Predict the 3D structure of the following.
Amino acid sequence: MHRSRGLSAALVLSTAAGLGLVALPQPAAALTAPVAFTADDLPTWQTNGVVWALAEAGGTVFAGGTFSQVRPPEGGSGTAQSAVNFVALDAATGSPTSCTLSFTIGSGTATVRALAVSPDKKTLYAGGYFGAVNGTQVSSLAAIDIATCTPKANFRPSVSATVRALAVTDNTVYMGGDFTSVGGSAHARYAAVDATSGAVKTFQADVDEPGRAVAVTPDGQNVILGGDFFTVNGANSHALAVVDATTGDNVRTYPDFIETNSVVKALDTDATGFYTGNEGTGGGVFDGRIALDLSTLDQRWRDTCLGATQAVESYEGVLYSASHAHDCSSVGEFPDGRRHHLLAEPTTGTNKLGWFPDTNDGLGEGIGPRAMAVSETSGNKYMWVGGEFTTVNGSAAQGLTHFAASPDTGAPGVPQVGAESVTPAEAHVRWRSSTDLDDTKLTYKVYRNGGSTPVYTVDGDSVEWSRPQLSFTDTNVTPGSTYSYRVTATDSAGNASALSTAATVTVPISAQKYPAKVLEDGANLYWRYDESVTPFVGDTSPGDQSGIHVNGPSLRQTPAAVTGPSTAIGFNGSDQQIYSDKRTTVPSQYSIETWFRTTTTQGGKLVGFGNNTTQASGNYDKHVYMRNDGRLVFGVWTGTARTITSSAGYNDGAWHHVVATQGSSGMRLYVDGNEVGTLAETNSQSYSGYWHVGGDNLNGWPDQPSSNYLAGQIDETAIYPSVLSASQVQSHYTLASAPADSVQTVRASGDTYVNAGASGSNYGTSTSLAVRGSSAYETYLRFDLPSAPAGTVLKSARLAVKTTTLSSAGSTDDISVRPVTGSWTQAGTTYASKPAVSSTVVGTLSGATGISAVYSATLDTSALSPALGGTYDLALTSTGTDALWLWSSEAAAAENTPQLVLTFGAP
């Protein structure tokens, strides 16, 4: 839709945008500014065909197109109604009004292709291909009295072919289309008629191909033309021109401005500019949008996204567009991939704003949305969209939909969270930022150990194609303790996601040597592949450059490449890979490091840089790949391939370490700690893109393997913004096999408590446990302890418990942990038959005062070590009067039932 404005329309615009004189209700701040509409689609009556045009007046939206019926929204009440190429709907409710018009023709298929409302909101003009409106004879152009919903019989200009575009001022109707004459006068595809009588005006702006869009500048002095044409009034001007509003004489032509295989499908104006929506055919097309300044008629910006634009709508500093954009990499946004049908960007630039409702391609040409209009009512404002789509936001909705300014009801997606600890001093919590269809700025809250108060809160910006990792370093940790973390995302309206799945981590009692060294040497991307679910790959480095699994690689593969609790990842060699989630560039000095294990004879890429994500990159270098014979190649592109190739093959099924570096001294390739090749090349191709692991394009590279994808396992991938030295590379290789601690978590195999006040009662099936000295409660726990792994001893042991949700669950008293020396059973023990307990205290639980919180006590390893490989019983006792209530093993596993956290390591 294009709103055309004469002087009165310009005044309305300026007051609304600048003077603040239009007293519309303002919704609460619930969207990321300057977006004006939520992405929550509202119930809207549907068509059985294509909607080509929209217009609005006084809270009513008019839709024209090629359809014969409208029906209630999916799941709504009511019955289908006849609607011959036209329907009028309530802008707020989305239901048909009493206004019924039928646009018909004697032969052929009637269609309404353009709608426009007069500045006084009293007359609706319709253009298309039709011969009658409610039986009143017309010729592809009609005027409708809005108050009575009747055609104006005295407005009957004769148009020789389809009208595709309309713009209206106080006294003139401008039209564009396929016609060559209007009212018997020759007018090649553009013309103007009197708004009241329909008499043809002297305006003459002839073009050689169809006119598809027309708009009037806010001052009423000029008319903007858009279409397929190559000449305007005989002058070279492809697809776009500005002409005088009275005479049609050329004011500004645009030769060589828009690609010859692209056309202008839509136009809109505002107080300072005008905007084009473009569609191209074939290669090298322009499918995006152009903003031009009204003061100079020169280009302000050009959005070169690919995916034909069908409609543009400027509203309150934002240009909304309908298209099927699938590749916006040329403006630094999403690479070639799925289609995005509805977008928003500021009228001052091309960066996409946080408004991402979506449709499917739908019927007909499979374009999706084709028309847009804004309607302002006394209580709200609405963005209406029409087209050939059959779904909106994934649910059935055909031809029409609309979105309100408020309320915003959609919640952000649930964050995917991971946690890791490689040193005794901290735990690293990271998550992939969530998406919200109408908010780019979200607030994240991190909760620890089931607590109800966040331990960390941070804001983050994200859009679908850029969901950067956010992270929190928890330094309030105790070595040997286990912590769980959950994260929520909240939008500016207060809509909150559900809590994430808990990410659990045990803080080591000594540093893991290999990862600690990688971080010390400055990695700004470090993927360790410890995730148990797809698609998020957490970055252990401070760079927060997370990755995304493609096609489900095999997770948590063992044995891993390095000692310790970490795992590897497996790839199938056909379509699985990982790409980094943050678009970046590579500095002139860098290092690539990874471990791999394979027996493939098909080769494949291990690690590399490319300009696409899920599809094959068009630019790709700075990569390490394997040839069919197992030899490794490190290559960069300088206009030609510059490579180093190892002399030996490494597809022997063993873990191997590879490092590739480039800097001021050239290129170096290391395998298993040793330098295997050098090249005096300091240049490489410069572009923005993404790191890939496991596969990406290799077309045209020397000794190209049979497969672009590696069949095998990969581990410990790191990227550095510097050149690793030979000694650093050797150190990494050596540390991979250094002894490392291992952690085992053992949940209680049995538990119960006894109650002095009910000495004969057994509580073995209770979901709770209790401890108190006066009016005593005592708790008994049984653990089946593992044996120490070969060559290790027990270095640390902790008992972890969680308080219940009772308001009095916490206790200010110290709780003693003692070995049980007598016999007991979960099902039979009572206070009267309670077991004997040692006087030796092997641990103390202190400060467990919170509700629904995890607490732990350090245990004496000398007491537990003799019991390894067998059963060990512990009692929780107190001498105080403040009861402690804990979850038992009968409670849900998510409630952190009693457990021992055991750390084993070298003596």
Remarks:
- The first helix runs from residue 7 to 19.
- Helices lie at 7-19, 513-520, 726-735, 861-864.
- The longest strand covers residues 711-720.
